[in-house]
Structure formats: C-alpha cells, structure tokens
Amino acid sequence: MSTPRLPTLRESLVPVGCLMLFIALAVLDLKALPEIAVISPLLRALASVPYFGSLLQASIPTQIPLVAAATVAAVMALRLGWRWADIERSFLDGIKLSLGACLILMVVGMLIGTWIASGIVPMLIVYGLKLISPHYFLVATCACCAVVSLATGSSWTTAGTVGIAFIGIGTGLGVPLPMVAGAIISGAYFGDKMSPLSDTTNLAPAVAGSELFEHVRHMAYTTMPSMLIALGLYWIIGLNYGNDTTSLDTVQTITATLSSSYAISPWLLVPPVLILVMVVLRVPALPAVLIGAVLGGVFATIFQGTSLASALDIAYNGVKAETGVKAVDELLSRGGMSSMFGTIGIILCAMCFGGVMEKSGMLATIAAAILRLAKGTGGLITATLATCIGSNIVAPDQYLAIVVPGRMYREAYQKAGLHPKNLSRALEDSGTITSPLIPWNSCGAFMFATLGVFPLAYAPYAFLNLLNPIISAIYGWTGWTIEKLPEAKKPDVI
Questions:
Q1: Which of 286, 308, 341 is the last residue of a domain?
Q2: Contact at 8 Å (CB) between 135 and 391?
Q3: Which of 135, 226, 347, 380 is 20 to 30 A (C-alpha) from 56?
Q4: Domain boundaries, position 469
Q5: Weakest-pLDDT range from 72-86, 423-437, 444-458
C-alpha cells in the first residue's frame, strides 16, 4: 500500500479558499452591497447569473458550506493518497475533540431556559436597569464580565449567565446589541485568558514549555493595555446613549413588564452565586452548569408557580414569552436544549473540516509556509499570531489553534533563543482571543447561540479581541518585553 504524500502549499490552500468562498456565499447580504464600492458591481453581476445568482439571494445555513468545504478537503486528501477509512477517522477524531463543548452547549441551553422561567434573568435585568446608566453601561458590562470570567476561568459560563442578563439590560437602555455583545466578549475573554483556572491558560504554557504563572505574568504586558484601551473606547461610545427620553421610556416599560410578569426576589440570586462559587472551587464546568439549570427549574416552581412538567419542557424547548410587549417577548423567548442543536451542527461540521485538514498535513503545510516567511523575532511572533488566527478559521476550535501552532513553532523559538513564555503568550494573544470572532468556530458558534448576536456583527466592537494580537505583534517587532533564553539553555546550533 502506497504511503500518502505530503501536500503542496497550493493543494493545501484549495480547501481553505473553497471554505472562504462557500462561507461568503452563505453569509453575504446583497442589501449591503452598495456599501462595498469595489466588489459590489462584480457581485451584482454574479447575482444575475442563473443558478449561481440564487445562492447570493438565499439565506443558506452555515452548516452547508462547512460540509461542502469538508468534502473538498476529503477529495484533496484522497488525491494525496489517503484511504477513505483514514479520512472518515479524521472526521471522527475532530468530532471527538468537540464533544465536551457540545455537551456544555446543551446544558447551557437548559440553563438559559430555566433561568428565564424562574425569574433569575428577569431579576438581573430589572436590577441592572435600575442601577446602571446608559453612559457607562458598556464599560460596566465589560468590567463585570472580566471579573466574573477571571474568577471562574470560563468565558462560556460568563456569557451564558451574566452575559444574557447584560443583553437584556442593553436592550432596555437602547444600546445596540452588537456593541453590548462586543463588550461581553471582551470582558469574558480577558478573564478567560488571564485566569489560572482557565483551560486555555493552562494549555498554552503546557504546549510551549513554559510555566503557568510566568505565562500569566508575561501575558499581562499585552492584555492589560488592550483592556485599558477597550474600556476607554467603550466609555467614549457610551457617551452617545442615554441622552433622550426614548431610552428612559423603554427602561420603564421593560422594568414594569418584567416586574408584573415575574416574582422578583433577591433569593433568585442564589443560583448565580452558587455557580460562581462552584467554578471558583474548580468544580468542572459541565456539572456546575447542570446544577445551575436544575436549580433554575426548582426556583421556577417555587417562585413563579411553574409546574414540574412545564419546567422540564422549558429545559428542552426554551421559553416562549407572551407578555404583550414585543421587546420583552423577543428578549425572553430563548433557551432550551433544542435551541443549541443548530450550533452543535455547525461545530460538528467545522470539526470534520478541521480534522481532515490536520490529518492530511494540509494545515501543517500552510503553517510551514508562513514560518518560512518569518524573519527575526518580530517575523516569528507575527507568524505565530497569523497561524493561530488561521487555525481558528481552518481548524475551527481554539484548542487546535493553540496546540497545532504550539507544536509547530516550539523548536523555532528554541533555535531563535527565545524563552518559551513568548510562544505561550503569542498562542493566547491570537488562538484564544480571536476564536469568538469566527462564526463557524466552536467559540463563535457558542456566543452566537447564547447571546443571539452574529459574530461578524459584534466583532467590530470586541475591542480587546481585536487589539490584543496587534499589540502582541508590535511587541514582537520592537522587542519590548520579549525575553531571551538564558545562555545555558540555548540549544546547540549545528
């Protein structure tokens, strides 16, 4: 039996190019074409082509272009000499990596549904609307999510709990939801990145060969400036809101509707506080969130008079709010395990694509080509950042975006005489931080399902996530905070 050959760079880029094209066809909105002066005439011409033009007019689920791209990658792998059994195994291996995320997604769906039905989310919204001014709402949202995520080490738990409450508060205050979601993402990923409790914060130094706390201290040089700039931008943007009576009327309407529809009590703070305590005590995320979902169902029966059968139905199908106020109904009609199935489908399809790209060596070929272009310390760190971001796109999971580049570049950093913590920082400055900005990445899909805002809509306002890789690259080129290996630990150059 012949051994599969290594792919060329051109062959490796074919599935990536197809993925970009298929995703563009799926998410492109022709109504926005007049704003794209250069390419809109071409796209309008393509829209008039029979059959092909209908793709630009239709709303295509993201799962379909991902399956199509995975098919192209599989065909390319067959061309390289891989057997179908190996390709199918790569699909399954990719899916296995995402099963933990899928389980958490289903349980978070249950938690959102039961927390709305129990009055926990309405209570947080009511208290938030009373306490937070629109002028500093975005700053408060980002800072609060950063504290919660820093304490829990989980951006997903942060978004699935206080995140959905801030979405509701932002709706009441009249702040555009993409801005609110951007502030939530920035805060959540600050804590996820800097907390020693975070899985990615532990994974990056393990892959790079550095130590956990020196890794965290080294990340502070890039992450803290990014966060301070982000908070400043949120404060400036927030000054544009809260100056009219419309937002005040909306706040009063939402507060009155929620207060009349739900029994609001401070006792409803018990489940959120309990979840935070469990996560701080390093209880695994899945049982902690499941306990929170169960408590939500119990509190729904106690405080809102919901029957046990209705609570179980809400845990699966979510809440269908009928308060008579459209804004409130749209806000609360969400949650349930079934609401996450579409997102799980995106993750599974994306991981099939990522699995065959890694197994066939196409991902490694692309990374190696990037590395060849790297010149000096700045080029090496920039190459690492670019590879991690590309991995989040091509092998759409943040763990792969940390592990694969980390394995590839570890030796290159050693040969360059750079301390491993430079590599671990670069992995997190790009692999962790950009994952929620990619719609088909497991993190982006989760945030979309949880917050209800499409990643490409909130991405321009996720300031921390956008700034962090840029600042990291600047440090690489200037040499600031870049630490060399001690002379005794430098590898011998042959």
A1: 341
A2: no
A3: 347
A4: 360-489
A5: 444-458
**pTM of this prediction?**
0.73
Instruction: State the Cα–Cα distance between residues 34 and 55, nearest whole angstrom.
Output: 18
Q: How far apart, in Å, do the first and last CA atoms of the chain sit?
A: 37
The answer on 275 and 386 residing in a single domain is no
Residue 426, token pair as written in the block: 């670069």
User: Within this chain, do residues 334 and 386 fall inside the same structural domain, yes or no?
Assistant: no
pLDDT at 411 exceeding the cut of 90 = no
Query: Exposure string (b/e) for 468-482, b if CB count within 10 Å is 16 or more?
Result: bbebbbebbeeeeeb
Q: Which amino acid is at 265?
A: S
Number of domains in the chain: 2
Question: Of the candidates 341, 374, 392, which is a domain's last residue?
Answer: 341
3-class secondary structure for 245-282? Answer: HHHHHHHHHHHHHHHHHCCCCHHHHHHHHHHHHHHHCC
CB-CB contact of 291 with 278 (8 Å): yes
Cα 346 versus chain centre, distance: 13
371: in domain: yes
